[in-house]
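Practice problem 4.
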């Protein structure tokens, strides 16, 4: 409660969906999430999922080799995230900026569409009609 006083205002459904995504798709442990409850307050569709998909695309393409702290990438302001993870790779992946922008605005496909550029991936998850 001390780290996120408005936690009680979050719906049970929002918390459940966020925890499921963070544990199953991102691979975070429950303890990690509990220590960073602000992750639960971020929009799954407009922030967590598009960023996760974008980073997954960069790793898959071999452009991002380092392991990043998930909280660090989720907590970055939109401007800083785009400057660090979108703009530097636009020349390597055609349509990256547009795909990320459409993913953040809840348009169909978004960054997930960039995964079609690679060979098929196992374990695709769907959240509110979106996948990555």
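Answer key:
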């Amino acid at each position: 409660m001390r780290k996120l006083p408005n936690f009680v205002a979050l719906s049970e459904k929002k918390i459940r969906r966020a925890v499921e995504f963070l544990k199953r798709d991102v691979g975070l442990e429950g303890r990690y999430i509990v220590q960073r409850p602000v992750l639960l307050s971020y929009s799954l569709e407009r922030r967590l999922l598009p960023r996760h998909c974008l980073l997954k695309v960069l790793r898959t393409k071999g452009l991002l080799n380092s392991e990043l702290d998930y909280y660090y990438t989720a907590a970055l302001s939109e401007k800083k995230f785009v400057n660090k993870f979108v703009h530097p790779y636009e020349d390597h992946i055609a349509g990256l900026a547009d795909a990320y922008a459409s993913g953040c605005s809840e348009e169909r496909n978004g960054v997930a569409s960039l995964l079609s550029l690679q060979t098929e991936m196992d374990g695709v998850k769907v959240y509110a009609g979106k996948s990555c």
